[in-house]
Structure prediction request, 300 residues.
Amino acid sequence: MSHPDLNLLITLDALLDEGSVARAARRLRLSPSAMSRALARLRHTTGDPLLVRAGRGLVPTPRALELRGTVHGLVQDVEAVLRPATQPDLARLTRTFTLRASDGFVENFGSRLLARTAREAPGVRLRFVQKTDKDSAPLRDGDVDLETGVVGDAASPELRTRALFEDRFVGVVRKGHPLAVGKVTLARYAKARHIQVSRRNRDSGPVDAALAAAGRERSIATSVSGFSAALALARGSDLIATVPERHTGSLRTGMHTFTLPFAMPPFTVSMLWHPRMDADAAHRWLRGCLLDAVQHDTAR
Prediction:
């Protein structure tokens, strides 16, 4: 089955609007003979003469009058599709964005992001879902619009990324804990009991690797899947939670935070999205809002 030449829609729209081969040709910057050939093709394709001679001019047939409104609407729709994306009308924008992030990220930056989006685009809804792994499938499949986290080896190379901030691990204990007084040495840190944080239920992680490089090993009293839970346990016990500093700023209120007595490299937290959303104007606006929310926190 042959496919119709969709360019003929633009030609037909001009002919029906102008009612003249010569004027339609000038409008589309074609020669009169080229427009006449196009009209002949349209007549053959539609099986209707469309425009017929009446005195010195042309008049539309009933079929042409029937098509005129539909054809004009189709041409306008095509032009809108092919027009470069512009800034959306935020006041009228109605859309739900799904963001996948850790609990700590949402607790520290979520309220500021929500305030910004509500002020600029009240019809936009943000849906936060918990990040339980580094699988890129939700972004690729369109289940998630934007994600935050450390870009690891498991991330799909096709994803777009933008760095948000640099973070580092710190130690946290309750007020009144023995480590809240005096300098926290490597020996004191290693001798205490610790909370292991692992989303994948692993027995060791980057903290343990850094301790091993320093010739030490820590005693793990319990294991949890997130930093929020680790801080909640540390707040009510004598256990140490080792957590990212920026990610847990609001969660550590009222607790004692100290610099780790051994070397651990900082890490970069980024936002990630799929390339198909790269040019989407509303998605680009959301990425800007998230970046501003994080930078505002940095400037405080």
